[in-house]
Amino acid sequence: RMETDCNPMELPNNTGFEEDSDYRDFEGTDVKDMRLEAEAVVNDVLFAVSNMFVSKTLPCAEDVAYINVETRERNRYCLELTEAGLRVVGYDFDQTDDRLQTPYHETVYSLLDSLSPAYREVFGNALLQRLEALKRETQS
């Protein structure tokens, strides 16, 4: 049985399965304030990374926000959140490099999955524990 650093009972209920609903309605609707969207992204996956927060230095607008993330491997990234999705724009907090041509990810889950094996493990373990807890609830 694998060990995990997080208590799955503290996980938000929307751990991954409805992730696409956040982005599905973007086209043809009013764009939400990206800062609020960025805060929601951070709250969803903070348990599975070392550090993550919306940048206070880089400008947030209706159509763009920046998120700083440090993986459990201690790698730091600056992420850009737009209608197109999330992508790495820098390799340190609050750093952007216009020359970077990194791909967009529809969800923070797929982006972190591609950057951090430790994220993948923690997230998977949390999901398993959550499912085991649900199974116990339905059996009692």
Automatic annotation (TrEMBL):
InterPro entries: GSKIP (IPR037395), GSKIP_dom (IPR007967), GSKIP_dom_sf (IPR023231). PANTHER family: GSK3B-INTERACTING PROTEIN. Residues 34-134 form the GSKIP domain. Belongs to the GSKIP family. GO terms for biological process: regulation of canonical Wnt signaling pathway. The gene is Gskip. This is GSKIP protein. It comes from the Eukaryota. GO terms for molecular function: kinase regulator activity; protein kinase A binding. Signal peptide: none annotated. One of its GO terms (cellular component) is cytoplasm.
